[in-house]
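1st attempt posting a full record on here, be nice pls
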Amino acid sequence: MKRSILLLIGFFWLITTQAQTQSQTKSQNQSQSQSQQQQPPVQLSDISKVRVDQLSDEQITKIMTDAEKRGLTDDQLLQGLAQRGMPAAEQQKLRSRMAALRQKGSPVGKRAAAMPTPMDQQGRQVVDTTTAFVDSLMIVEEEADTSRIFGAKLFRNTNIQFQPNLNIPTPKNYVIGTGDELLLDLTGDNEASYTLPVTPEGTININYVGIVPVSGLTIEDAADKIRNRMQPTYPQLGSGRTRLSLTLGNIRSIKVTLTGYVTRPGTYTLPSLANVFHALYASGGPSDKGTYRGIQLIRNNRVIETIDTYDFLTKGIQPGNVRLEDGDVIHIPVFNRHVTVDGLVNNPGIFEPVESETLEDVLRFAGDFSPEAYRAKVKVLQVTDRQRSVADIYAEDFSRYTPRNGDHYIVEEVLDRYANRVAIEGAVFRPGLYALTDGLTLRELIRRADGLKEDAFMSRAYINRLNPDNTQQLITVDLAQLMAGSTQQDHVLQREDKVIISSIFDLREEYTVSISGQVRKPGEFEYVEQMTLGNLIQMSGGLAEAANIEYIDVARRIRRNTNERDSTISELVRVSFDSREEAVQSDFVLQPFDMVSVHTSTGYQVQRLVRIEGEVMYPGEYVLLKKDEKVSDLIRRAGGVTEFAYLPGASLQRKASDAMLAQGHSALTSLDQQELRELELEQSALQSIALENTAEGGTKTELFFSNYVGIQLDRILEGDRKYDIPLEDEDVIIVPRQLRTVTVRGQVLNPNRIVYQKGKPLKYYIRQAGGFTAKAHKKKTFVQHANGSVEGSRWGYPEVLPGSEIIVPTRPEREKIPVQAWVSMGSVITSMAAVIVSLLR
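the predicted structure (as tokens):
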């Protein structure tokens, strides 16, 4: 509710601010849009400056609609505005404007302008239209609860609704007053229903009966009085053949005053069904200086009830929570004593014990000890007449110690140590913590841990013992003798002893074997006893197609304890097989750390594909027939070149590196092929970085790099064997058609393609591209021909051919010599001149 009223008031202020801004805009002949952009932010403190006359009907309608969506009545809205400084005259104007809009048939539904009722709730309502029940909307934002006093969060919590239930059955002891509405029903021989409002004089007017005074009577007494007055008119009431029922309809509002140490003292208008707790919640409850244990209800200048809210806060019961009447006064005196509880309790805070309560009760108010609390003692910081003091209260005195005003109780944490803990870890079935009992021995602890594992190291175990001075010592135990029944090794354990039993696997290096070469899944595998070569081949996925089974090499570690000089670093065992099945079923026993190598079969070759594209008779993919098949052979198999072929521009693209070709990658494994692809990508990235060119203005020019091999197809077809190179797997030969352009890129003013002019030098094409930029490195200009070959500018600019690409790189920036360097150079020159002069003399 608080959030709703704050949002609505902010919305109200925004609308009024816009109205004022528009009015000023018209007077100053400024545009409406510009004024709205410059309007000040919404501030709730400026509500006092709002003038309702400046609001349009549309703006009032928006305020009413938004209030109805949030479930707020007119009175709630106006009271919230009043709390924030809106003058009473402006409130009345706003109420009149809203009423007028409803009479005109405003789309805003007619609402009860009194007790806030949920949208789905129907029935009894408060009939007073001048004021409303004050709830959490009256709590201003700056009063957000930060108090540690027990109970303050309940009465100052704006997120809960603490309102009386208006639809309860009519209480028999309800006292009728001015503003109530009575519902009178006659059933039986006579049937009649009356809705009887109680007039300001305290009477009701019944047809054919007359005026009956009912103010000050309870419902039950009023029913008896009305029955007696109606018997002459309805004789059947005396015989019981007609029955009379008197219930409460709409109820009146009452005014209750809260005084003393209240969060927001004052007079509040509440429904007549409200009780003391409703009034306390409306006012925010006692302040930080107010009591929660002795709240007084004063009626007719007499204290008729004293309310102890701790009964409700701790037990949920409400003794003394009587129904309020008009003119009641709720007085909250100052607290008698406050004590503070901190530390490991479930609800730390400030509490208000009465004289009959003890520290045990205070701890109960604080939710008792948390699981980690030290329960044997509570430390108390006391305030004496002259100074402060510290005392310890032990558990047996909790029920006898009477708290004093200002006491500060601190519940500390239990010590982080164990009184009877021993631990065992390592090669036992249930390692962990165990309770130390009298006379517990090492053998008994191992039995409690379900015994030793099969891999336990039996030669030695350790007991890590904590000495009295918190230093540690190790006690060695022969585990084999202990388990054999030796009493000498069966030590009696002490508090905090830790037993460590090692596994044989913990005391040695992890055994592995590896296999590489022509297997499907080469790698390293865990070694197990009696592992054979056939087992390892199976674990690696079996032999590859290119595997050589004539011999498989097994490299074995050399284990020598002597210090002899020997260059041998491993022992080689060669195993031969007649068939692949025999290799997979091999019984050759491996040893830890053996390295198995499966070589490639001699003469094993996979098919090698090459591709030829462009101006040939039959372009496409071809399988190489022999290792030394050359470019001319492939051209011949492709039917030769067409009449449109540009032979000087033919190129060969090769993906494999020379190192791989030298090794012969026809039988590369999948791992080797992956490494080859990664190497090619890395080389391509390095080339792009090394030859990065930028155009004027910082625009980057991307250059295309590929693994071209410069060939001269025209000389190859003329029979010059010097240029007729052998082909390799995945080679691509491209025979272009006649090219008529030259590309210029890099540090030129206008990179583009230029029509080739026979015999024109390189500078001609540079001029056609606008000339060099200021960053051009002219001496490093190079030409990449259509066949992939590259010529630099070592002895002048190279020749430009059709399809060539002229690339002008960026000149590297020179570092400017700093002032300090010039000073140093001047000092050196001066010194040298002085030396030379002295020598000449």
